[in-house]
Amino acid sequence: MRVHAAVIAAVLILMAGCGDSDSDSGDADRSSQSAPETAQARAVDEAEDAAASNPRDPEALARLIRARFDAAAGDGNFATKGFSAAGKAQLRRAAADWERYLGLVPSKPDVQLAALMVQVFNVNGLNQPRRAAIAQEFIVAERRPPSASLYAQLALLYYEAGQVGVGDRAAERAVSLSPPGQRGSLRRQLRQLKESQVPPAP
């Protein structure tokens, strides 16, 4: 199982967990489904207007990215079925907005926003592991003290992207940060993850 996918799935299940308790009326259920979708679309429109009015404001772009992700996440049951076509269209727009955002704050983006972009680019989203790894790098750099689990996730993303050398370095960093008694087990797990993602040499 992909480490980052498992973490994201758990979050998404929590987000989607309150839709099943009231099933007395189909009309009531459709009503409860449509209202959030309308609010999400309106939030995207408002965030787009704000970003257009303030093109040099990174916070306006950050709000737009978050609004797009919320709209994508609310468009279908992506926790189990993946993002819908409309949802992925929002993710692609969020990815373009992220590049604009990085142009304004190239060295120190918001860590929570970077974490959101890992979800945008991961296998359940746009399936662009190289870009997911770059976003994860920002998170890893800001974490104090350094985190073994974040480096392990970074290693996996690089393995998925086919960048074995960088992935190996992240994996070794993860092992070095883990408690001594767990290092052998973590090294084996990371090796297995690497072998599951990287084809063996001919």
Structural topology:
Elements: H1 3-16, H2 26-53, H3 58-73, H4 78-81, H5 85-104, H6 111-121, H7 129-142, H8 148-160, H9 164-177, H10 183-197
Helix pairs in contact: 2-3, 3-5, 6-7, 7-8, 8-9, 8-10, 9-10
List key phrases describing it.
0% strand, globular, mainly alpha
Q: Structural class, please?
A: mainly alpha
Looking at how many chains there are and whether they match, the oligomeric state comes to: single chain
Q: How many alpha or pi helices?
A: 10
Helix percentage range: over 70%
- Mean pLDDT across all residues, rounded? 83
The largest sheet is: none
Taken as a percent bin, the fraction of beta residues is under 5%
Number of strands: 0
The ordered H/E elements are: HHHHHHHHHH
Distance between the termini: 25 Å
Low-confidence stretches: 1-34
Radius of gyration: 19 Å
Shape designation: globular
Q: What does this 3D model show about the protein?
A:
It is a single chain. This protein has a domain at 1-12 and 26-105. 74% of the residues lie in helices and 0% in strands. The protein contains ten helices and no strands. Helix 6 runs antiparallel to helix 7. Mean pLDDT is 83; it is low at 1-34.
Summarize the model shown.
Helices cover 74% and strands 0% of the residues. It has helices spanning 3-16, 26-53, 58-73, 78-81, 85-104, 111-121, 129-142, 148-160, 164-177, 183-197.
